[in-house]
Amino acid sequence: MSLAEFMQHLVNGTSLGSLYALIAIGYTMVYGILRLINFAHGDIFMMGTYLAYYGILFTPIPWYLVFILAPLLTGLLGLVLEKLAYKPMRGSPRITILISAIGASFLLQNFGILVFGGRPKAFPIPGILDTTLTVSGVSVDLISIIIPIITIALLVILNFFIKKTKTGMAMRALAKDFETASLMGININGIISIVFFIGSFLAAVGGIMWGIKYPQLMPTMGVVPGLKCFIAAVIGGIGNITGAVLGGFILGLGEILLIAFLPNLTGYRDAFAFVLLIVILLVRPTGLLGEKTSEKV
Question: What is the DSSP letter of 138?
Fold first, then answer.
């Protein structure tokens, strides 16, 4: 393998890892506060991509505004999902909330099949983004460079929000001790709604970039990426945002470099994520940056 080919694979792996990181943040934020695995998160990712698809094709709104409005609407969808599927279950046994999350996932998938149809659709890629650049003999899609830049920018904004604002401090307080934070007068329901909105917003941004990078839309398109992003969150240490980002990049780079160096294993690309998950759980069950926490029944 030449240096140019290796650099090309490195760019593609970084791009894929950026997408995984964005979506994994939603998993880890919800778990950090509610100790809930939101298995409908991958389907929220799917809904955001379809909203952008229909917004570009069937409205007069410019594509760059659609790329802003679609994540905002998806954030509202995540907020509604929390109000209807999770809030009524708060205080119930963990298994009840888990079943509710799985039910919400199937509901969104079947809603997508009913409304959008089961046939794959081609995502309308804006012409300016459908270009290829050649740098020092390395040919890469422009979107593969844009994705990490957008991801880093959003992560910097999110990090500032969590560490420097009162709402962010309230989120950290809830993640540290839910009961004590509620006794201190923090608006629990409001903070949880904000967490779901942010997570769903980021998932939609990831979904739009996923649609540009891999332009085939299906109502079940969020299942495998959703599982992989959950794995990325676990690898990094679920509940830790930095860990989710680290896990996303490890998983994305690992997948691309695996098939680059061992092309005969291309068919086992998805299996790599699950093998890595098993190894991490055996070696470090809390993840790379996770901390041991006492589970409350």
Answer: E
Burial label, 20 (beta-carbon count in 10 A; 0-12, 13-18, 19+):
buried
List Cβ neighbours of 211 (8 Å cut-off, separation of 6 or more): 49, 52, 53, 123, 217
Q: The tokens of 296 are what?
A: 């409350």
Global pTM value = 0.92
Q: Which of 39, 44, 40, 107 is nearest to 70 (CA)?
A: 44
pLDDT tens-digit series, residues 231-263:
999 999 988 899 999 999 999 999 999 888 888
* Six token digits for residue 53: 């698809």
State how far the Cα of 84 lies from the Cα of 63, in Å rounded to an integer.
31
CB within 8 Å of 104: residues ≥ 6 apart: 39, 40, 43, 81, 85
DSSP one-letter string for 45-64:
HHHHHHHHHHHHHHSSS-HH
Q: Could you give phi then psi for residue 37, rounded to 5 degrees? A: -90, 110
In tens, the pLDDT along 66-109 reads 999 999 999 999 999 999 999 998 888 888 988 999 999 999 99
> Per the structure block, which two tokens stand in for 12?
């593609």
Q: What are phi and psi of 141, to 5 degrees?
A: -70, 145
Q: Tell me the two tokens of residue 27.
A: 């998993």
The domain locations on the chain are: 26-222
Count of residues making up the chain: 297
Model confidence band, residue 135 (pLDDT cutoffs 50, 70, 90)? confident
